[in-house]
Every structure is written in C-alpha cells, then in structure tokens.
Specification:
There is one protein chain. By secondary structure, the chain is mostly helical. It has helices spanning 3-22, 27-34, 38-46, 53-63, 67-76. Helix content is 73%, strand content 0%. The model has no long low-confidence stretch (mean pLDDT 95).
Length: 79
C-alpha cells in the first residue's frame, strides 16, 4: 500500500470514529443495525480489521451520513 492510500485509509477510519461519536451511537447499536457482532464492529473501529465496502455503506447509512460527505471529510483530513 502506498503512502497516500495508507493516509486516506487512516483518515477515513478517524472520520468514521468522529461520525459515530457525533451521532451518539454505541458499537452495540451499530452492530445491530448492520447485522454483525459488536466484537467485529469494535475491531473495525480499532483498525484491527478492514471494513468491507458494503458494511461501510451500511454503517454510514446507520449514522445518517452520506457517502459523499464522508469521503469529502476524510479527504479533507489529509489535504
């Protein structure tokens, strides 16, 4: 993975954490909404496991965040 890709991946993960906190959602609630275990959600947010794109899209929907807004905010973190 090149440096820019790694930076974007890290920025997206940080933005996902911010979105979760801003929407006051627990790991348990996100897990329930996307139908995965709470442990899996915790591993995603810790960066221990890659988030499959369909799951990421479900997580964003559960948080009421558009894909476009999420990526714009993520990219802005490294700009």
């Amino acid at each position: 993975m090149d440096q820019r890709t790694a930076a974007l991946q890290q920025a997206a993960l940080e933005q996902l954490r911010i979105e979760r906190a801003a929407n006051n959602l627990s790991y348990m609630e996100i897990a329930r909404r996307v139908e995965v275990s709470e442990k899996t959600v915790r591993r995603y947010f810790a960066g221990e496991r890659d988030i499959p794109m369909p799951t990421l899209l479900q997580m964003l929907e559960a948080m009421g965040v558009s894909v476009q807004a999420f990526w714009e905010r993520s990219v802005a973190r490294i700009a």
